[in-house]
Amino acid sequence: MAKECTCNNRFADVSDLGPVDEIVEKYGQEKGALIPLLQETQDAYGYLDEDVMRELAKRAGYQLSQLYGVATFFSQFRLKPIGEYLIRVCHGTACHVAGATQISDEVINQLGIKEGETTPDNRFTLESVMCLGACALAPIMVVGDDTHGKLKPTGIKKILKKYAGDSGSQEEEE
Amino acid sequence: MTLSDGRLEVEEIKVEIDGTECTGPKGSTILDMAKAADIYIPTLCYDPRMQPYGACRLCLVEVEGARGLLPACYAEATDGMVVKTTTEELERIRKTLVELLLSDHEMECQGCTKSGRCELQELANRYGITESPFVGEKHEYVEHVENPFVMRDYNKCIMCGRCIRICREVQGVGVYDFVNRGFKAIPGTPFDKDMQETPCEFCGQCISTCPTGAIKARPYEGTGRIAARDMLRNACAYFKMSEEDMMEALGLDNWVTRTTCAYCGCGCQLDLHVIDNKVAEVTSPKMVGSGQGNLCVKGRFGYDFIASDERLTKPLIRKGKKFVEAEWDDALDLIAKKLGAIKKKEGADAIGVLSSARATNEDNYLVQKFTRAVIGTNNVDHCARL
Amino acid sequence: MAENGHKYKLVLGYGTCGIAAGATAVKDALEDAVKGGDYDVDLDFAGCMGYCFKEPVIEIFDSAGGSVIYGDMTAKKVPQLLDEHVAKGQVIEDWVIKDSDDPTAHEGDFLENQHRVVLRNCGKINPESIDEYIEIGGYEAARRALTGMTPEEVIDEVSASGIRGRGGAGFPTGTKWGFARKSPGEDKYLICNADEGDPGAFMDRSVLEGDPHSVLEGMILAGFAIGARQAYIYCRAEYPLALSRLDIAIRECHEKGYLGKNIFGTDWEFDVRVKKGAGAFVCGEETAMMASMEGKRGMPRPRPPFPANSGLWGKPTNINNVETFAAIPWIINNGSAAYSAIGTEKSKGTKVFCLAGKVRRTGLAEVPMGYTLKQVIFDVGGGIAGGREFKAVQMGGPSGGCLPESKLDTQVDYDQITAAGAIIGSGGMIVADNRTCMVDLARYFLSFTQDESCGKCTPCRIGTKRMLEILERICAGEGKPEDIDMLQTLASDIMASSLCALGGTAPNPVLTTLRYFKNEYEDHIFNHKCTAGSCPALITLSIDAETCTGCGACVKVCPTEAITGEKKQPHVIDAEACIRCKMCLSRCPSESIVAE
Does ipTM top 0.85? Predict the structure, then answer.
């Protein structure tokens, strides 16, 4: 399934195994380094590709089942590529009480995708997360690296528009 | 501490279980001590071949002075410990646990070939549960029947982890691991690949440890000759009797024959389940002999040759381009004549004899005796080395 | 104190809260304005002071030791701030939240009513400068202990202080260190639990972002006390700023010789490494955390054996929370008697709470143990936002419970709070008003624990799922009379048989809401009504004709086109078409839509 890459060259291509070599080299024979190995691999490629994982298992000396078991246990790991911007809506307690459900609903409404999905133009991927620790600004969502707090459903469209055109930048919130 | 004759001395400890004093070596778990004293504690995720796991929570016991209930399979017994394996609360908890497991279990005992030796069914019978009071989401996994040996139906999985642990700890292969987390967690192969595409050697150890019908041996499933065995198993489950007791009651002996696997020199023990003079199934008797209940692919799946249609029943002599059935006397005369001629012309070492692990030890003894003493060469070998 | 000969020192709060509220733009504006040398001011930044409800926050110190704290700062306000306060010495009253001349005025009593030990430096010093930390006495406790005390003496001091683990279990810290010390073996490990997974808790994040050295110093003391030479900080990946500040702090410590070999010239060596979490709440549990550090799925194992005897890689390991470590240098510097003078008989010292939810002042509140809940929520927290009524306070996150108004006089004390049915836990305090449905809140917490359950043990994996399904049915208006009893029996079996504290405490929110708010459950089940007017399946939405301006904003968002009305005329919701998604309610500019 060929997809046009919109990552703006942030990530390596999965056919390039250079990063895998570097990562395995870095951790050498360190025991218990399985999670950092996966974290850095995901940082390099944007997600954990099956063939990349096989290579990683082989070179680092792990069973593939161990890597896969760990990768599917922790929320941080993705086995599919994400869009250009990852939208994470916080559903921690404070955000929940402040109406996080309505925020998620509005994002779903605006983008036409369900949670865990990516928009057809590959620009946005939507995820729910549990508590980002900025509870006083509930409800919050993070788009890419930018945190947007004290959200109202009415303000979502405007926020999303900022990222739709260019590579986006943080702007002051109300 | 090492004794004067070189043996290691193991310290003995005493614990009290249900009012009975039990002794055992230091380092034993509470379950070890209980089993040695024939005191029953229910388990599901326990298999003596592996490290204790402590996940099913069936074996929880009360220990005086401890913070909360302790899993007997995991907790180390200490000298002077006082344990209660059964109380009203413990029995209620065990019942709830089984009810919870059944609420997400494909209960088709009638059609399941594990019926009668299913550990979950045993516990359900024990606690008098026919139906779970907890109704909710039930998994609907697609059955895995992609290879001829191991079939997996995770709708019957109780997440005991025994398949994963035996493959990783005992076999050192690690075909499976748990995938996902929480209610969605299930054992599986990476990327849900077919087992042929994993390092799986088809030893079937996972089959031997699975307490329910989640993992089964495909060659021994559902053929006509097994129907009788299944009926027997269902009868055992219905009357709450073990297979041995049922066989005795029906006056049927030699249903299960214990023998030694012929394939290699390890000497693992096998139980051949025989119906109508045919081997319907092969299982590995728990914790017995040198194999301790473990088998490899040959021991577990390698006995279908006994009643195979492809076996020869008469000698065949090549006449031109075809093999023609012959009588034993004719065949033996031909062999003696030809071998004699070769030995005379080229010498005994021009002849080699290949036997098979599938022959009995007695037959193989004769083969090598024949080769060495009669033919006069040491060129004899056997397929186990391949 | 104004430094470097300047008249004023201006400190900008620069933690995750502040940045989320726009502090980066303020920082840029300040740096831009000051670089020309036109203002007699020393610019610095610090971590979060805890005035989260007023972020971005700036504190200006004068050379006489006084200070004014400004809140709700923006880049646009920077020129005026510099021109009036820095250039002319004129305080801008409208923006002040605390003035040292009148400490309890404005929002000053938020801080005045607190007693800061753990948060002593947060918002005051630059977390990326070890020199600022040393200047205020940092690493003196570590130096004194390593060069002049024995490990046993350090443990005795910590024991005498009475400090109990601040991660949630409240186990006496000195005793815990004693176990690890006594465990045989040369290889021991120390771990700082910075996984802070409780939704609603952000005190660990604030300490790591605002005063990472206090944690490192506490760890140096702990490592020395128990005999561990290698330590780890397990910090969740969702805290990138905390992670980067920790990296900087550790590097600085190495440069100064406070970590590594021959610390303070002794033969003691100690090193700290950071391990990033990967997104699993269960890894806040000690044995699950250690499993993930060993490269496995974060699934707990039974205890005993306890980590102090057999922990990471089978070696004796001591694990403490960020907040606990941050208090240790204070205890060594000021003495155990000073610490035990604060608090109640069985719960000594202070506790940091994170006030969130419907309280007016959301943020960090560090109070002495013994304050009543009423004092924390009303005196520090400023009472309920929007003039509404207090209904309940949820304490201890998903492992904790909800306490009602009748329990507001309960003192903050491990045993008292537990007796009331909740737990202090990590210190999260979510305040609910009369619009919060307690059944939905219980359902929310259970869905969290269900999602985070590792799946290893039967009671948690399947039991909490079945409890959640019952709650979901109740919230959807399909509750059955036997549900309440079933919830209670399931809860008790799950709590008794779960493998770890995640499952063991997961039923708590359900049990406390059943204890104190049973009427709400009964309303849902028997009367088909949501008492708080919240659960979509059990409410009706209507428009107040008197306040509706007819703007039509609601019509635009209604997914079932259930709202009709003429422009500028009161609109009407068709109850049959309405699916009660409440999109209209969130859009209405005149708050005319009512849910009941």
Answer: yes
Q: Which residues of B touch A50 (CB under 8 A)?
A: 191
What single-letter amino acid sits at C583? M
Please name the residue ranges forming H helices in C1-115. Answer: 16-20, 23-34, 78-81, 109-112
Residue B177 has its nearest CB partner, among A50, A53, A68, at A68
Phi/psi-derived region of residue C477, left when phi > 0, alpha when psi is between -120 and 50, beta in every other case: left
| Yes or no, beta carbons of B179 and A53 under 8 Å apart | no
Tokens 């609109």 belong to residue: C571
Taking alpha carbons only, the member of C142, C391, C358, C149 closest to residue C270 is C142
Whether the CB-CB separation of B281 and B233 falls below 8 Å is answered with no
- Contact criterion met (CB < 8 Å) for A36 and C276: yes
Kindly list the residues from chain C whose CB atom is less than 8 angstroms away from the CB atom of residue A150.
21
- Give the C-alpha separation, C178 to C194, whole Å: 22
Q: Strand (E) positions, C158-219?
A: 189-194
Contacts B180 to A, Cβ<8 Å: 72-73
Residues C29-39 pLDDT 10s: 999 999 888 89
Domain boundaries, chain B: 12-86, 130-301, 312-346, 348-386
Sequence-ordered strand ranges (E) for chain B: 12-17, 20-25, 60-63, 70-71, 82-84, 150-152, 177-179, 186-188, 215-217, 256-260, 269-275, 278-283, 316-319, 322-325, 353-355, 380-382
C209 vs C215: CA distance, rounded Å: 11
Q: Which of B343, B347, B279 is nearest to B308 (CA)?
A: B279
Q: Of chain A residues 113-132, which have a CB less than 8 A from chain C? A: 129-132
Answer yes or no: do A93 and C199 touch at CB < 8 A.
Answer: yes
Reported as a single tens digit per residue, the pLDDT across C305-331 is 999 999 999 999 999 999 999 999 999
Contacts of B185 in chain C (CB under 8 A): 454-455, 461
- Give residue B158's identity as a one-letter amino acid code: I
Q: Which of C555, C101, C145 is nearest to C331 (CA)?
A: C145
Contact state of B174 with A65 under an 8 Å Cβ cutoff: yes
pLDDT value of residue A170: 44
Q: What is the mean pLDDT, run by run of 10 residues, along chain A of 174 residues?
A: 55 89 88 93 94 94 95 93 89 80 87 88 87 75 85 86 64 40
Q: To the nearest whole angstrom, how far is the Cα of B235 from the nearest Cα of chain C?
A: 29
Q: Which two three-digit tokens encode residue C429?
A: 């305090």
10 Å CB burial of residue C94 (0-12, 13-18, 19+) is: exposed
Q: Which of C292, C290, C77, C47 is nearest to C191 (CA)?
A: C290
Q: Which of C305, C452, C463 sits opposite B100 (nearest CB)?
A: C463
- C399, amino acid identity: S
Query: Starting at the edge strand that comes first in sequence, how are the strands of the sheet with C317-321 ordered?
Result: C271-276, C230-235, C189-194, C317-321
Chain C interface, mutation test: which of A97, A101, A103, A107, most C Cβ atoms within 10 Å?
A: A97
Domain covering B12-86 assigned CATH 3.30.390.30 in the classification: no
Identify which of B176, B180, B181 has the shortest CB distance to residue A65.
B176
We find that the CATH architecture of domain B130-301 is 2-Layer Sandwich (3.30)
8 Å CB contact between B94 and B77: no
Q: Is the separation of the CB atoms in B70 and B77 below 8 Å?
A: no
Domains of chain C: 8-107 (3.40.30.10), 130-338 (3.40.50.11540), 350-433 (3.10.20.600), 438-526 (1.20.1440.230), 540-595 (3.30.70.20)
Which of C201, C279, C313 has its CB closest to that of A75? C279
Q: Assign domain A85-165 one CATH number from 3.40.50.1980, 3.40.50.300, 3.20.20.70, 3.40.30.10.
A: 3.40.30.10
B177 lies within 8 A of chain C by CB: yes
Its pTM stands at: 0.89
